[in-house]
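Tokens as discussed.
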């Protein structure tokens, strides 16, 4: 009994001491804050460049076996010293063809802003390796490309319908946070044939290109995020590209893992990310900036553009078109009538004619492109049409 009373006395003394000390030196201090501060909120993208500056673009031009010459032609048609360029020939291409592209870039003194990915990626059609390759190029451009405003991905079968002076002039006065990305949440048949099947892309683990294959069982449509689909071709703002690469709230990485097993993931990954992040939902412009001609009913691929498509291409006001065959005669017509480009030459512009890289000399293409962009931005319901 005496021992019990002693223990009670000691316990009471400790509690009393704790109260006195904690009153004088509080162990916990409640600080009133208007909002909870998470580590994610401390991270920011690069600030947007002022609209008083000429926009700068960062291009990825990618191709596969036999596309080396087409990439050279497309690069010359797109070249401007204010821009940045990354060229990629996938792993299926021979060392000789890839080395020839490297030599081509090194021989031209102007191409200080052009990089060739020499350690090529294996890119599988309809597989996530195309997404991975796009992110790889974007990472190179963020790390080594200096200042730029928008990232554009093109293939060797794409070609411009306006000059770079036209394009830079037309983009000068629009908000640089906008993402030009075709998108919809209406999956329709794609829910059954793309969202539910599980695919494996051998390009993730093999050095030899082969088709994707399906595995069982299928999966249900996700509930943690909403799926969107659209075009694989886009023009993305620098803040969004940096978010894709850094992913400080982890969503880009989570979705990248999900889309690893998604059929035709290049047509869904970027759309699903931009439309599931509150900071970017209202930045979308629903267009891929391409003229693409589909058969009716549409097939897996758009048809190759030829001379008969020329008028519709121009009337579309789009800055790019696809798909073109190798050395298709309509490309010569585009060079002559739209770009003013001589065979194997560069497209004339202020930088080319007057050696002033900040002097833009827009032509008729700028008027067409401004009409296209203003049509989207001036739509009375533009603010209500994001990520529907």
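Sequence:
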């Amino acid at each position: 009994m005496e021992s019990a009373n002693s223990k009670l006395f000691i316990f009471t003394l400790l509690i009393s001491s704790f109260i006195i000390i904690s009153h004088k030196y509080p162990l916990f201090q409640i600080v009133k804050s208007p909002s909870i501060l998470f580590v994610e909120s401390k991270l920011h993208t690069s600030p947007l460049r002022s609209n008083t500056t000429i926009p700068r673009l960062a291009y990825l031009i990618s191709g596969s076996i036999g596309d080396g010459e087409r990439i050279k032609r497309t690069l010359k048609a797109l070249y401007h010293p204010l821009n940045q360029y990354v060229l990629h020939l996938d792993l299926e291409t021979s060392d000789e063809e890839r080395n020839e592209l490297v030599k081509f870039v090194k021989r031209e003194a102007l191409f200080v802003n052009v990089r060739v990915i020499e350690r090529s990626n294996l890119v599988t059609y309809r597989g996530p390796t195309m997404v991975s390759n796009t992110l790889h190029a974007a990472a190179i451009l963020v790390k080594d490309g200096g200042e730029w405003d928008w990232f554009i991905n093109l293939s060797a079968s794409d070609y411009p319908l306006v000059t770079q002076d036209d394009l830079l002039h037309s983009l000068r006065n629009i908000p640089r946070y906008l993402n030009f990305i075709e998108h919809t949440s209406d999956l329709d048949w794609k829910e059954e044939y793309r969202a539910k099947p599980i695919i494996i892309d051998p390009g993730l683990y093999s050095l030899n290109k082969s088709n994707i294959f399906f595995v069982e069982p299928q999966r249900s449509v996700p509930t943690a995020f909403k799926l969107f689909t659209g075009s694989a071709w886009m023009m993305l703002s620098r803040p969004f590209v940096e978010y894709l690469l850094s992913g400080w709230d982890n969503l880009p990485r989570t979705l990248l893992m999900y889309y690893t097993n998604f059929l035709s993931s290049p047509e869904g990954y970027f759309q699903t990310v931009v439309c599931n992040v509150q900071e970017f939902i209202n930045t979308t412009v629903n267009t891929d900036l391409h003229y693409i001609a589909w058969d009716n009913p549409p097939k897996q691929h758009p048809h190759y553009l030829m001379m008969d498509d020329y008028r519709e291409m121009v009337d579309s006001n789009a800055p790019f078109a696809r798909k073109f065959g190798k050395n298709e005669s309509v490309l010569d017509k585009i060079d002559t009538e739209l770009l003013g480009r001589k065979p194997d030459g560069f497209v004339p512009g202020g930088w080319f004619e007057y050696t002033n890289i900040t002097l833009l000399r827009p032509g008729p293409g700028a008027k067409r492109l401004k009409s296209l962009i203003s049509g989207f931005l001036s739509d009375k319901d533009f603010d209500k049409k994001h990520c529907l």
